[in-house]
Amino acid sequence: MVLVLPDVCVRATLVTLDVIPGRASELERLLRWRLEREAFFPMTGTRLTWQVLDPRTVLTVAIRETVIKQYEEVCEAVGLLAVEVDTATFRLCNLFSNLVPAAEPVAWLSLLDDGFTLIIFRAGRPALVRTKARTHADPEGLFQDIANSLTINGEGHTQPAPRRLILFAEEPASELVRRLNSDLGLEVIQPGWNEVKHAGWSPPDSAHQVSILAAVAGLRGAA
Predict the structure, then answer these.
(1) What's the whole-model pTM score?
(2) Per-residue pLDDT tens for 1-55?
(3) Of 110, 100, 95, which is closest to residue 7 (Cα–Cα)?
(4) What number of other Cβ atoms are within 10 A of residue 171's Cβ?
(5) What CA dihedral angle connects 59, 221, 217 and 75, to 10 degrees?
(6) Of 71, 141, 163, 223, which one is least surrounded by beta carbons within 10 A?
């Protein structure tokens, strides 16, 4: 079983290295040191996984052992064994990977489980990852977070800024979509159940929350 966690349970960070060590143990030590030093994230009692994206960039995901054990114990209590752990947004990225072409930059925004996760893909790989708890009472702050992240990520890149944003939101986001389109010039795509046909799933007859799509991605076993 794939255990799909809310994004806010983990710390996802892009780490740039001059040289990526060949041995996994050496790389883990270096990543833990960098995360403590630069991301101000204490690594004691933390489980760390990573993916090498290119010769200098590593995507890291850290989670407290106490947090992951709580979820694992719940699974065990109902007779389930978690053999893989992932986050909702990364699972959705895998399920809808056809929406992230390598030829152009794309922004991805998940507003699920009271969280905010923004990923900017360049050449089909994450170039920026931001996750934090979301304040529902501050829509202007949410919009400014997106606008500022796009501006910061665009600095120093030869590629143009993203013109498309893929949005997953549990609640209606018509005003946010309007501002993303009118103020930032973004085409907003909101995938739903009809878009999972390419993965071999039939859309349900009744309406379901968008967040359940992450569970579908876990059942599908996308890697």
Answers:
(1) 0.86
(2) 788 999 999 999 999 999 999 999 999 999 999 999 987 888 999 999 999 999 9
(3) 110
(4) 10
(5) -90
(6) 223
